[in-house]
Amino acid sequence: MGFACTRKPVPNSLQAREDDARDRGARGAEGDELRELAETFRSTVHRLSTLVGELEAAHEHAVRAERRFRDLVHSLDAIVWEADVADGRFTFVSQRAVDLLGYPVDEWLREPGFWAEHLHPEDRADAVAQWNAAVTSGRNHQLEYRMIAQGGRVIWIQNLIHVVENQDGRPISMRGLMVDVTERRRSQEALQKSESSLARAQQIAHLGSWDYDARRDLLFWSDEAYRILGQERQDFYGSCAAFLETVHPDDRELVREAFERALETGQPYSIEHRIIPSGGAARCIRFQAEAIPGPDGRPARLTGTIQDVTERRQIERELEAAHAQALQAEVDKKRFYRDVICAVTQGKFELVDREQIPEEGELLADLPVVTGDDYAAARDAIAEFARQAGMNEDQSIDLVLAAGEAITNSMKHAREGRCRIYRTAEAIILRITDQGSGISSEDLPAAILMPGFSTKVSLGMGYTMMLKLADRVWLSTDCDGTVIQLQKLIKPHDEEANLLEEVLKRM
User: Fold this and answer.
1) What is the pLDDT of residues 137-170, one digit of tens each?
2) What is the pTM of this model?
3) Coil, strand, or helix at residue 158?
4) What pLDDT digit, counting tens, does each position of 262-295 carry?
5) For residue 370, which phi and psi values (nearest 5 degrees)?
6) Computed over its alpha carbons, how large is the radius of gyration of the chain?
7) Alpha-carbon distance 274 to 249, whole Å?
8) Which of 384, 416, 446, 490 could bond 435 through an S-S bridge, CB–CB 3.0 to 4.6 Å?
9) Where are the beta strands (DSSP E) in 309-408?
């Protein structure tokens, strides 16, 4: 038995609603798609707008950066340049080129050989060779050369060259800086000239210089210092210990102590000691040092001079020996004259040293004898003291006359004369002193023994008169002055007087 399924007809109103629902669903899907597309468009437009803003900002930043870079390049106190390695033509030159050398920038850029043509003739070959070497090797270079500026001025240039290569390592361009170093070169030349002059002066004077860095224990020596030490710069390590090794063993402790004391106290010093140069005999040097304080105020460096005084000390020793010989000869000569004079005068006239003149008796007066009034006063005083002592008139006159000769010589030929009057129980003693130049050894015998002899005008009878009138005479004379001491007995010994008279007659 079978069943048949039959569909009932749908009412028209229900069908219409279904169709309407389907239409609305289709339209909703299309709306969603359109809305999605619109949102995507708006987002894309926003992103594009943002990107354009960023690009505009980046462009503005790049423009400002380029402007700052150009301002920086043109404000540098150096010529910034770029050149093609193929023909050497400059592709960029900063404005400083005009300020420094005076040539317009377009001349640099237009003429391939501009740089080489304006090099100093004496530097051209070497500078061009080094430029080409930089191109060939691809290595950075640093050159110094002279260029001829507009108007003929000579400018020293330091050129710092950087080689730019491509990916294959081949040079494609060169860039660099040209710096004006004219003042520096002038200073260097002046310094070199000064150092050369100093080195020459040190060599002539055998005077070297040195500098010690206490922190690093390093001694720096000038060329002449190395010569004095007998060392080669490349072989001699400049430490304090190395220097002490050159010092004579007997002087080493003295040098070490002086060095350490200067570093401790900061006080300068100057000492002389011996050194043993490499392969040579001992030399004598003068070593002077002065301390240089560091930031903490303590000595950080010592600096000073070293001078070879070997020859000077040898000459001084020879002069001292010659002087000693001359002094001894003078002593021997005086001793001979002293013996001769003493023998001839029977011991009445003694030529002695100052300290050998006897000082005895009571000091009666100490009188200046510089002026005429002093002379008269001294004579009066002598006569009065002789009278008071009981000396007869003839003896008194002889003493006054003898004193007058001595005082006259002092007043005429010396200065700061004085007359001291002493009295003993037996005699009046006069001591006349001055600060003259004295009498030379060669003139002593004649001055004392020859009547009328004089080394100066108007000495008169001089010492001969004193010898005749006084009973005893002592004389000391040297470059510091003369001392004459006259002794006159209060009661004369007639026998001695007659003997002296006989001696003088024979002379």
Assistant:
1) 888 888 899 999 998 889 999 998 888 888 888 8
2) 0.41
3) strand
4) 999 999 999 999 998 877 788 899 999 999 998 8
5) -115, -40
6) 57
7) 9
8) 416
9) 349-351, 362-368
